[in-house]
From TrEMBL:
Family note: Belongs to the isochorismate synthase family.
Enzyme class, broadest EC rank: isomerase
Alphabetical list of NCBIfam families matching this protein: isochor_syn
Species annotation: Sporosarcina gallistercoris
Protein name: isochorismate synthase
Organismal lineage: Bacteria, Bacillati, Bacillota, Bacilli, Bacillales
Length: 462
């Protein structure tokens, strides 16, 4: 374990990359809940943490601190920029077989051409990724903790020793501290922001679609919640982790702000040469009994407007798989996806990777799918900017991770909220097509707000 870091081979220096070495060291640690580890990060005053639990609950990742931060740069494609920088660091990675791969976790904003007007998202650049200093991964019944460390200097032994001490302290705190309280936060107020504007935008978009200016456009709106006391990110995660058992539960901390959510929508997973995506669009609420639930589900499967919303997404995602995969398959009819608060139409898509296609190429080609943007994409994006007039920030955008071997997974950050102390902003939207009715779309957004309202102690009645 106490490798001599200074003895390890150094890497060539290039103009693009200064003399960099990227170390990682993994140990196995028992008896840690991921949320306790996450919370231990706050106890050492780190405000750069992340949390990720995949929808099938086979893998949980927690990150504390930033060993390395990657952001976009003006004038370059943000997806390519993150991919290129990450590859450079991966080339400098020094690891042994027993060490897990370091992960790069982060997200992109929905729209890189978003307005520069002040909003709650100001502190989030168009791409924000980090390799955590301390990385916890629970998979296949094993709990692993790694230290990741990037150094541009030759003398790293002392620094690495200090990180080992900190890691042991984090594990100790995670093992012995009291578990997180399950009490819901005390909500002071819930405000619907610009409801009239939203209804008008849906009406206008519907008319434009009827005139043939676009085929589908997703329009969103937001709620502002105020609380009596600042909300701790760990409490928000605890709620979604308990309540949303079939969703991707994620959280990304950026200083005093915390973006979190429980999304059912996979954008892309790459695993051992295979690519997996999911078309998720078309919605109906859950029934109050099993019979009613099934009745609603059948209604959704047969509903012309929802099937149309869904088909645009299938056409686009299968088109991307056609261009980036050596071969692919997609179901011919949507199935139902039922999560705690809502049912969706769902068509899984799966393919075998083409030679050159990596996860960021899929993210770049897929975002935004017509479940969040529209058809045609450039027209829909322009209409969203004009008519919706909302900074979506990281809502409806790709969030996830990749590792040095090219595996990884990105979800679409819907059913999400931005928290800052005593404030939270919640976002929800829906796919508008030619026969959309503004009040019905409005009602659908209330169903989509439910996971975050539930997590934050809000009223679920809309
Ligand atoms: C835009 C959202 O949902 C999308 C994903 C699934 C179903 C949708 C729908 O039926 O409208 C939306 O396209 C949201 O949750 O804010
Ligand atoms: Mg819809």
């Amino acid at each position: 374990m106490n490798r001599k870091l200074t003895d390890l081979p150094s890497r060539e220096t290039t103009a693009a990359m200064p003399h960099v070495r990227f170390f990682t060291e993994t140990i196995e640690a028992g008896g840690i809940s991921p949320l306790s580890f996450f919370e231990a990060g706050a106890l050492i005053n780190d405000s750069h943490r992340f949390y990720w639990e995949n929808a099938s609950k086979t893998m949980t990742l927690v990150g504390i601190g930033h060993a390395l931060t990657l952001t976009d740069e003006a004038g370059t494609d943000r997806f390519d920029a993150i991919e290129t920088k990450w590859k450079h660091y991966c080339d400098a990675l020094i690891k042994e077989d027993k060490d897990m791969d370091p992960v790069l976790f982060g997200g992109f904003s929905f729209d890189e051409k978003r307005s520069s007007r002040p909003s709650e998202w100001e502190k989030f650049p168009n791409a924000l990724f980090a390799v955590p200093t301390f990385q916890l991964k629970i998979e296949n019944g094993k709990t692993l903790v790694a230290i990741n460390f990037v150094s541009e200097e030759s003398e790293t032994v002392l620094q690495f020793e200090a990180l080992r001490k900190q890691r042991d302290q984090l594990i100790h705190m995670a093992q012995v501290q009291e578990s997180v309280s399950t009490e819901k936060p005390a909500l002071v107020s819930t405000k619907e922001l610009r409801k009239d504007h939203y209804l008008k935008a849906v009406k206008q978009i519907t008319e434009k679609i009827q005139k043939g200016e676009a085929e589908k456009v997703v329009i969103a709106r937001k709620l502002a919640l105020k609380f009596e006391h600042p909300i701790r990110p760990v409490a928000a995660l605890q709620s979604v982790s308990n309540e949303q058992r079939d969703s991707y539960n994620f959280g990304m901390e950026n200083g005093t702000q915390f973006f979190f959510g429980a999304t059912p929508e996979r954008l892309i997973e790459i695993k051992d040469g295979q690519a997996f995506s999911a078309c998720v669009a078309g919605s109906i609420k859950r029934g109050s009994s099993a019979d009613e639930d099934q009745q609603f589900g059948n209604e959704l499967l047969e509903d012309k407007k929802n099937r149309e919303e869904h088909q645009y997404v299938v056409d686009m995602i299968t088109g991307v798989f056609d261009s980036l995969c050596a071969s692919f398959t997609a179901a011919t009819r949507p199935k139902l996806m039922k999560v705690r608060d809502i049912q969706h139409l769902h068509t899984p898509v799966q393919g075998r990777l083409g030679d050159e296609s990596g996860i960021f190429q899929f993210v770049k080609a897929l975002h935004p799918t017509p479940a969040l943007g529209g058809v045609p994409t450039p027209v829909a994006m322009e209409l969203i900017r004009q008519e919706e007039d909302l900074d979506r920030g990281y809502y409806a955008a790709p969030i996830g991770w990749t590792d040095a071997s090219g595996n990884g997974e990105f979800a679409v950050a819907i059913r999400s909220a931005l928290l800052e102390q005593k404030n939270a902003w919640l976002y929800a939207g829906g796919g508008i097509v030619a026969d959309s009715v503004p009040t019905q779309e409005y009602d659908e957004t209330w169903v989509k707000f439910r996971p975050m309202l539930r997590a934050l102690g809000g009223s679920l009645n809309g």
